Amino acid sequence: MANTAAFTGINGLREIRRSPASHLAGAMEAGSIEGTVALKEGQFQTMAGVRVDPGSEAGARIASVTGGLPVRCGEVAGTERVTVLWLGPQEFLVVAPEEAHDSLGGDLIGSLVAALGDAPGQVVDLSANRTTFELSGPRARAVLEKGCSLDLHPRSLTPGTALNTEVGNIPVVLFKTGDESFRLFPRASFADYLGRWLLDAMREFASPEVP
């Protein structure tokens, strides 16, 4: 049975939480250029680091919870609410909405732990380990190209692809969510630097193009 008293206490704390880039919210809103490029933080998502052999029985059980596991570099699996990013042959990052967290009445972390059972592997709650930046617009790729060595051209990086890389010398998981939209998953301690780097890289697009 859910401990509703605990949930009430947690919900009270939710009102005073601050995400890793919350102090940049005003700057991100001001620095976004309508119709050109926009930046915002996706706050407080539920995240879990999973290590398991995808070909094992435990891997199949984990996949039944997440809606699948990626089988190769760059591949993304999951459902409409759960996204699974490939980090390595037996390592994955599971991302879901905030309310999927067990402390808020969800069951994602507990379900992953139960699915792994006693099999070799690991399930770690990483919800406080990373934040998410959402970069979108026709110039989003141009912003990233200033500090990312990946080939970001659509013929090479298609929507639904996620790769480990660096942006502005900061390690991130870069997930292309659409033709002109990206999600960046940096560790929380790098949120301030990366947020400011992205804003600086966006600044040139606020000025009219020189003919």
Task: Please describe the topology of this protein.
Blueprint (H helix, E strand, L loop, with lengths): L3 H11 L10 H7 L6 E5 L3 E6 L5 H10 L9 E3 L4 E6 L2 E6 L11 H9 L5 E4 L6 E5 L3 H6 L15 E7 L2 E9 L2 E6 L4 H12 L9
Antiparallel strand pairs: 1-7, 2-5, 2-6, 3-4, 4-5, 7-10, 8-9, 9-10
Helix pairs in contact: 3-4
Strand content: 25-35%
Strand order of the largest sheet: 1-7-10-9-8
Instruction: Output the number of helix runs.
Output: 6
Give the overall shape, derived from the CA principal axes: globular
Q: Give the overall average pLDDT.
A: 92
Biggest sheet descriptor = 5 strands, antiparallel
Structural class by helix and strand composition:
alpha+beta
Helix content range: 25-40%
How far apart are the termini? 66 Å
Question: Would you identify the regions where 5 or more consecutive residues have pLDDT less than 50?
Answer: 1-7
Order of helices and strands: HHEEHEEEHEEHEEEH
Gyration radius, rounded: 18 Å
The overall strand count is: 10
Describe the structure.
The protein has 211 residues and is α+β, with helices and mostly antiparallel strands. 26% of the residues lie in helices and 27% in strands. The strands form two sheets. It has a five-stranded antiparallel sheet. The chain has a five-stranded antiparallel sheet with strand order 3-4-5-2-6, with helices on one face. A hairpin with a 2-residue loop joins strand 4 and strand 5. The longest helix has 12 residues. It is globular, with a radius of gyration of 18 Å. 35% of the residues are buried. The N terminus is likely disordered.
